[in-house]
Amino acid sequence: MLSGRRYRLELTTEQAELCQEIGDICRAVWNTALEQRREYRRRGAWMNYVPQAAELAEAKREHPWLKTAPSHALQQTLRDLDRACREHGTFKVQWRSKARWSPSFRFPAGNLIRVERLGRKWGRAKLPKLGWVRFRWSRPLGGEIRSATVSRRGGQWFVSFLVDDSRQTPDKHAMPGTAVGIDRGVMVAAVTSDGTFHDRQFITPGERARYRRLQQKLARQKKGSANRRKTIAAMGRITTRVTDRRADFCAYTANRITARNALVVLEDLRTRNMTASASGTPDQPGCGVRQKAGLNRAILDKGWHRLELALRNAARCTGSRIVVVNPAYTSQTCNRCGHVDARSRESQAVFACTACGHRDHADVNAAKNQRDAGLAFPACGDLGTSRSAKQEPVSRATGRNP
Asked: Which GO MF terms does the UniProt record name (predicted)?
């Protein structure tokens, strides 16, 4: 099983400058290759990795500054671009902006990387062009190194090793027959069908106020100035802490859920589409834009997509099965009688069925409906995602549409 190990680097001034230079070269190669691909597509032709790699070798003879970066790091950049274009489309792949993109590059040859432990807290790795670099030994590698990625976040440089830990996904979960449904929301990050609420505060009130002041300060500063760079760095340190807390929460929650349940059922939520900017109506172009922006921030703050990725990653170690179901009407359906009525959702937290009078927390009721839909999947062979979102579900009590 392949897994990642990330460590904080302790670079010298020369090594940090070289890492920044290599990252800038990889960014230039990415943008140039992307522009070439788009130009070919405009002409009705195609461009892929093989001819671009050959042209990169010729460009290194004409432009000596390209030789500063390792050859296989530049080739890996072209491979990553080729994969992104195949998966998302040439015109949907984003540029790597100098101001917004954090420098990163990958060494794909694991046999060229050597790692040694220097003591209880420190280790060192020998990377191409960089030589021996020290890093904080926060956890053992636990496997054979396949590749290494150097990146910068919040003013700090990190190295991530992709290792093969020789583990395999279990054929059977330790607790077969257990199942849980998860309802993700903007008030509580995740609510399970057993009534457990998983949530935490990712940013403190003091950090929120300081970030707001930094944003106001940034708006008054001149672009390209040294003070503006300091303000952006201070904002980056705050967002880095928030991101780390969110990642820790998702990993911890995913490990707890997958360790206790053989089946984990999620809503099929398209987070990217749900957080798209509002355009208003033809008569009122700006109508609802501010409200939609607030909803988008709440969704992104809770980390819906990151939690799903963490669950899928943790399921590899426990043998749990992740199932996604159609989210239509799960919050309006009574889990006891199956009656569907929007009026049953009295408030954000209260669900009171208008047919049988059953009362429950609204998120817990929705999570139970998702769990039942996931349990029905092996019998009917349908994830429930093929049904039209406008088609109401069949009532379990009457067998007919309500």
From this structure: endonuclease activity
